[in-house]
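Onboarding guide, step 5: your first structure request.
Type a short instruction followed by the sequence, for example:

Predict the 3D structure of this protein.
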Amino acid sequence: MKSIYKFLVVISIFICNTPAQDTLIFKQNYIPYPDTTLIFSPTSTGEEMPLMILLHGWSGTYAQWNSIIDLNSAAEEYGFLIVCPDGFYDSYYVDSPVNPNVQFEKFFWSDLIPKLLEDFNVDRENIFISGLSMGGHGAISLFLKQPDFFKAAGSTSGVLNLSDFPNRPSIKVSHGDFNKYYVSWRKNSSYYLLDNFTEKSKWMIIDCGTDDFFYKCNIEFYEKCKKLNLNVKFISQAGNHSRGYWSNSIWNHFNFFKTLIEENIPN
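The system replies with structure tokens like these:
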């Protein structure tokens, strides 16, 4: 089923009316298949560009975000270099303890990021990351693990505590059985990563629909941030776990990140 799904998504790229301006393809023995990454950049700039990395949700691909919103238009409007890597269907954007061929973090830091910094005129003081659902988990967890690299991070409908869903088959694929790999589940959960996060000048933006099955873990994540005196903007609004919700919610992230740049909030 996965191969059929990927085939259909590849077809959708060619018929989409807002094609990416650049495409990168990475091949490594520690990722399950070549990673296709879509790049959208503003056309009228010779200056350094803020970088926004957008991560897709479970069962999605690199094409998901551009099928939800027009990323070419977003790049033009905000002046961002927008990058959409593939999360390998169900990697949860971590180095899997059970599958040596699914090492997303290694790919992210060893391949994707160096290539972006080498090939594009990135403003290294203004690098952001966000994502939906599984991608929300990925964005916040990557940020909490390596805060020096990012200016801020966001999550929409994110799985911010993996341990709340020990029987969820999609998480078991990347993390293994909860009882056997309990330590890995915790160390990769954003909720627990907060315990060792000391960069209190950094910002996060979190949102989740009130009818979303991840709403409770988002509320708990926000409450823990406030208890730890961390900078977090939380948006609780009507909605569920759907494309319709994400097509509206992600603009809050674009606007929030743009404000951090304009107000010259220190990195």
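Each response can be followed by summary notes, for example: The two ends are 43 Å apart (CA to CA).
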